[in-house]
């Protein structure tokens, strides 16, 4: 057997790449279109709960055809008490393989990838499903993915008003200050959910709840708004889907099963089914199904997270790393 080497990008390497907003959005949008055309394989995520803390591992698997041409597996932890140890709640690794031979190609720190690709899917969903003139964003949650939600959506919409909220004052205040510095515009930290989301053109719910609790009230949603709830534990009322003209997801296979997810109760109650679902986002990006048709449509976009986005963004990072001479090569065989 010939020698086999694996490309390795650790966290400092990923940070050194300094991926631009446009590079992130392009990689993820391309993977969504590939998925929409049926040129990808995605397996529903599975979970591992170690049972020794408040947390679990997500294992995501998938494969993309050309131009990425890779299979991948990402393992990401979701441990809500990590902040007490000075650790991010989500730490992850992405492994890429040759889809024809199974030869391992690369290992990447995927904590940043998880944050970036989640923000990109939120932003691309908003690009296709929010009103074009959306100028007010209400964002609940300040975890790692939240930063990229706001940053990449603002890249597309250039908001006039950005409101953020999270449970801990130090978290929401620090989050608002970081965003204001990086975006070069005011970002307001709100003390409660209602003040943050009521009347907003785009509402994103990325909360960190221990158990399901309906904290986002349906009555606060502005007609014509886009609502993007994706907390692991549901924070929405069962009535939320009743006001929606369209419900869009990233992957129905993942959304219809499992124990976690913002609309889990809606699936179990029969409020969200394959028949009531409008489309997967990839079908809209690929031009196979329509996105927003009018300004008065109130739309919900639920995303659980795609292995395909991880694989595509990891591939884009590896290509940039090779151009810049960043990273290491590890002997495998």
UniProtKB/TrEMBL annotation:
The record's section on InterPro entries has: NAD(P)-bd_dom_sf (IPR036291), ODC_Mu_crystall (IPR003462), ODC_N (IPR023401)
| Pfam families, per database record | OCD_Mu_crystall
Q: Which family does it belong to?
A: Belongs to the ornithine cyclodeaminase/mu-crystallin family.
What are the annotated GO cellular component locations? cytoplasm
Q: Which Gene3D superfamilies match?
A: NAD(P)-binding Rossmann-like Domain, ornithine cyclodeaminase, domain 1
Instruction: Report what the protein is called.
Output: Ornithine cyclodeaminase family protein
The domain of life for this entry's organism is Bacteria
Annotated SUPFAM superfamilies: NAD(P)-binding Rossmann-fold domains
């Amino acid at each position: 057997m010939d020698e086999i080497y694996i490309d390795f990008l650790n966290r400092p390497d990923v940070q050194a790449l300094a991926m631009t907003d446009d590079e992130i959005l392009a990689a993820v949008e391309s993977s969504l279109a590939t998925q929409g055309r049926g040129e990808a394989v995605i397996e529903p995520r599975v979970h591992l709960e170690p049972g020794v803390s408040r947390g679990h591992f997500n294992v995501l698997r998938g494969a993309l055809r050309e131009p990425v041409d890779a299979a991948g597996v990402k393992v990401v932890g979701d441990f809500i008490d990590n902040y007490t140890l000075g650790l991010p709640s989500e730490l992850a690794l992405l492994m890429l393989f040759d889809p024809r031979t199974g030869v391992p190609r690369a290992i990447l720190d995927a904590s940043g990838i998880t944050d970036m690709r989640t923000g990109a899917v939120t932003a691309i969903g908003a690009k296709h499903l929010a009103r074009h003139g959306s100028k007010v964003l209400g964002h609940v949650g300040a975890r790692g993915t939240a930063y990229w939600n706001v940053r990449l959506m603002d890249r597309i919409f250039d908001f006039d008003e950005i409101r953020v909220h999270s449970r801990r004052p130090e978290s929401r205040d620090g989050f608002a200050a970081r965003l204001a510095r990086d975006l070069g515009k005011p970002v307001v930290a709100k003390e409660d959910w209602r003040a943050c989301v009521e009347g907003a053109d785009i509402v994103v719910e990325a909360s960190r709840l221990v158990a399901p609790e309906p904290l986002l009230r349906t009555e606060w949603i502005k007609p014509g708004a886009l609502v993007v709830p994706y907390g692991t534990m549901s924070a929405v009322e069962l009535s939320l889907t009743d006001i929606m003209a369209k419900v869009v997801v990233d992957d129905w296979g993942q959304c219809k099963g499992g124990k976690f997810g913002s609309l889990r109760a809606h699936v179990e109650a029969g409020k969200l089914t394959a028949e009531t679902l409008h489309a997967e986002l990839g079908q809209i990006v690929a031009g196979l199904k329509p996105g927003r048709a009018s300004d008065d449509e109130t739309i919900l976009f639920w995303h659980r997270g795609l292995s395909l986005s991880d694989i595509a963004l990891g591939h884009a990072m590896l290509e940039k790393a090779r151009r810049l001479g960043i990273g290491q090569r590890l002997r495998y065989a």
